[in-house]
Amino acid sequence: MDVAALAPVQAWFGAAFSAPVLAALVAQGDRFLDDRIRLYAPDELIERNATYESRDYCPGYLAIGDDSGGRAIMIDPRLPDPPVYVVDHGAMTADAFEALAPALSAWLHGR
After folding, report:
1. How far apart are CA 96 and CA 35, in angstroms?
2. Of 10, 29, 71, 105, which one's alpha carbon is 20 to 30 angstroms from that of 23?
3. How many Cα atoms occupy the beta-carbon half-sphere of 54 within 13 Å?
4. In the predicted structure, residue 63 carries a pLDDT above the cut 90
């Protein structure tokens, strides 16, 4: 799969994603980072974000995975190396975010 597969996701989101985020989503999507954290496949991103209503409750952020325990992994995909947050699916607002890492690249490569 290549970054072209994420064109529908960007259109749904309403903004272009940074090149590093596009590459990370293609390279890391549809896999577990450890025994709990799963990153969504590119073809799951719209469905998962629509289900969790992230566009309404967390505008500017995209759920890229979850912790298998009811919490979403969130980033701002427009940034070149966005901070990574976790938020409860029942409280999908940016003010409820908990920081996981200051940068997506370090978070992905440190796992």
Report:
1. 24
2. 71
3. 31
4. yes
